[in-house]
Each structure stands twice: as structure tokens, then as C-alpha cells.
TrEMBL record:
GO MF, any single term: 3-isopropylmalate dehydrogenase activity
Enzyme Commission identifier(s): 1.1.1.85
Sites marked Important for catalysis: Y143, K190
Organism: Chryseobacterium wanjuense
Protein name per Swiss-Prot or TrEMBL: 3-isopropylmalate dehydrogenase
Gene Ontology annotations of biological process type: L-leucine biosynthetic process
Cofactor note: Binds 1 Mg(2+) or Mn(2+) ion per subunit.
Length: 360
């Protein structure tokens, strides 16, 4: 197969800017490797609320279901963050999309670039060689349990629920990834307090017998938050429930120097969505300063998913080349920072140039 239908949801804030760079990259990949990508755009998030009243219009959902993969930018708008009474919120669009597409596994890789070691807030000795793959459960838990706020606004709750079926598929995925890597899997939970965490432990232990070559260990989430800073190298693959995964993946992201570098893949039975882990960064909207690399590396994860591994590899190499040559945005504290679109164009040109000169 060399023709692919891609749903593109730019979303809010810097979303459209970073997605624009991913499209530029895919056009370069298409040219260099002779693939065809057909892009269909959809509205989601605050932008969708402003235009249609719905954070996930039916039309958008349909486009996503009919595509080979979904590329997504970012979601969120201060107009809603600052208004606790808003009934319709941009984030509901993303949550509904994850649920409707059954995207149960959110994969967030963390890798160090040697040329960026000095940019990390942590010491070089601590972070050098860190390579972690986080598997976050994405369609259950407290995000999707029953919610309630009393009329007077003085009482509220959110229920956290898990069933064995919600846990099994992502745990298998995480074990299989660990087998390909350093063969260590850590379940992060709060099993000293939460029943759902005790269920996670039980299911993980059962599944572990199918992967005897992988070492399974357990860590409480509070300790894990500390261990990620003290000794991140001890982790190989992490698997965890929805909200713990949300929190520790943001924490882990700064180890590499900037959250603007980290991609993610959300995978289901028959659909997949790719998005940077950063948010909509409204303060930077329209300024051309957003780092497009997280979105571009999410695109590389999409190429892997579409089984275009060679193109994915080329793209990762090109990103590395840009980083090593200091072709980066202002978040990486470069002496001479480049704009969002300069970084994207540099990577796109490098893909086209290097493919032509070596292979044609
Ligand atoms: C993320 C984001 C989302 C989440 C928000 C925007 C709903 O923080 O993808 O990590 O909490 O899952
Ligand atoms: Mn998050």
C-alpha cells in the first residue's frame, strides 16, 4: 500500500502551527518515497465550539473513522480554563474522540538527544542514557467515570473505575514492547490505597507468566514521581492507569530538555491518533515560536504505524540532524533560535535532499 487517508485535526492554540509543519514533512516524505497522503481536515476543540457549538462535530468523527490515521495538534483555550461554569469544554472533544475510536493505549516515548543534555534542568550524570517508554491507559479510569456537581456547587465527585478487560490489552502491549527493549516493565500505581490499583497489580501478575523473559516490578506513583527525577535510567517500559500516566508523562517530559520534543501515539483495535504531548500553549499562538518537533515526531510514529518504517527512520534521523545542528526553536535556549516554520522547512528539505543524493 502506498496511498493513505489522513484525518488532520489542527485544534487550538499552537495546534494549527505545529500541524502545518507535520503536513510539510509528509509532503516531503511523499515526494522522496513516492507515497500519496490524502489529507482531510476536521474541527475539534475550542475552535469547533466557536463554529458549531460542539467540541467534536459528527463530521469530524466520521472523517477520523474513515481514515488510516489521525494527526492531531492540541486542545484548550483560556476562555474555558478560566470559566469553571462552562458546560461545554474543548477537552470533551478529545476525550470523546479517544473513547469513540477505542484508543486504549497512549504511548509516550522519552529519549535523550546528546546535544540537548545541557538543556535539561537535571544533571547530566543523572539523565544521560535515559530511554523510557510510557504506556498510559487512555479510555477508562477517573477520566471516564461518573461525575457529579451539586446544584449549589459545594459538593462534587469523579469516580475511578477499571475492569479486567480495560487493563488486559494495554498490559500485553507494554510487555511486548519490553521484550523488544531492556526487558523490564514497571507498573505505576497506588495499590496501598486504591482498589483499582490492586486490580491492576493482580492482572499484571497473571499476564506476567506469559512473558517470563520480562522482569515486572511495581512502584507507588508518589515514589515514581520522585524516582523519575532521582534516577530516570532505572525505567525501561512503564505501564499505568489514565490519570497517573497523564501526570508522570508531563513530569518525564522535562528530563529531555523540553516538552516541545515529545510525541505520542494513541492506539486502538482499528484506529490510531498521533499528537504531541504538549498542550495548546495559547500564549505562543500566532507568534511562530512553538517547537514543531513533538508534532513532527508524532508524525514519525504515525509512519511506523502505517508500516512505512523506512520513512519513519529517515524522519527521525532528519530531526536529529536539525537538533544537532542547533536548528531549533527558542524553548531549547538556542543562541540563535529559529521559527516554527524554519525548523519544519529545514527538516523537510533535509529529507528531500538526503533521499535524492543518496538513493536516486
Ligand atoms: C493529554 C492532555 C489531555 C489529557 C487533556 C487535554 C484532556 O493533558 O493528552 O495529556 O489530560 O489526557
Ligand atoms: Mn496531559
Amino acid at each position: 500500500k502506498n496511498q493513505f487517508k489522513i484525518a488532520v485535526l489542527p485544534g487550538d492554540g499552537i495546534g494549527p502551527e505545529v500541524i502545518g509543519e507535520s503536513i510539510k514533512i509528509l509532503n516531503a516524505i511523499a515526494e522522496a518515497f513516492h507515497y500519496t497522503f490524502e489529507f482531510t481536515y476536521g474541527l475539534m476543540g475550542a475552535e469547533a465550539i466557536y463554529q458549531t457549538g460542539n467540541p467534536l462535530p459528527d463530521e469530524t468523527l466520521k472523517i477520523c473513522k474513515e481514515s488510516d490515521a489521525v494527526l492531531f495538534g492540541a486542545i484548550g483555550d483560556p476562555a474555558f480554563d478560566n470559566n469553571p461554569d462552562a458546560k461545554v469544554r474543548p477537552e470533551q472533544g478529545l476525550l470523546k474522540l479517544r473513547k469513540e475510536l477505542g484508543l486504549f493505549a497512549n504511548i509516550r516515548p522519552l529519549k535523550m538527544y546528546s546535544s540537548l543534555i545541557e538543556k535539561s534542568p537535571l544533571k547530566k550524570e543523572i539523565i544521560e542514557g535515559t530511554d523510557i517508554q510510557i504506556f498510559r491507559e487512555l479510555v477508562s479510569g477517573i477520566y471516564f467515570g461518573e461525575k457529579f456537581t451539586e446544584e449549589n456547587g459545594e459538593y462534587a465527585y469523579d469516580v475511578c473505575k477499571y475492569s479486567r478487560e480495560d487493563i488486559i490489552p494495554i498490559v500485553h502491549m507494554a510487555f511486548q514492547e519490553a521484550q523488544k527493549r531492556r526487558k523490564k516493565l514497571t507498573l505505576i500505581d497506588k495499590a496501598n490505597v486504591l482498589d483499582t490499583s490492586r486490580l491492576w497489580r493482580k492482572v499484571c501478575k497473571e499476564i506476567a507468566s506469559e512473558y517470563p523473559d520480562v522482569e515486572l516490578d511495581f512502584m507507588f506513583v508518589d515514589n515514581a514521581a520522585m524516582q523519575l527525577i532521582l534516577n530516570p535510567k532505572q525505567f525501561d517500559v512503564i505501564v499505568t492507569e489514565n490519570m497517573f500516566g497523564d501526570i508522570i508523562s508531563d513530569e518525564a517530559s522535562v528530563i529531555g530538555g523540553s516538552i516541545g520534543l515529545l510525541p505520542s501515539a494513541s492506539i486502538g483495535e482499528s484506529n490510531a491518533l498521533f499528537e504531541p504531548i504538549h498542550g495548546s500553549y495559547p500564549q505562543a499562538k500566532g507568534k511562530g515560536i512553538a517547537n514543531p518537533i513533538a508534532s513532527i515526531l508524532s508524525t514519525a510514529m504515525m509512519l511506523d504505524y502505517l508500516k512505512l518504517e523506512q520513512a519513519a527512520e529517515k524522519l527521525r534521523k532528519s530531526v536529529e540532524y536539525a537538533i544537532e545542528n542547533k536548528y531549533v526553536t527558542v524553548d531549547l535556549k538556542a543562541e540563535q533560535p529559529y521559527s516554527t516554520s524554519e525548523v519544519g522547512s529545514f527538516i523537510a528539505d533535509y529529507i528531500k535532499f538526503s533521499e535524492k543524493s543518496y538513493y536516486n
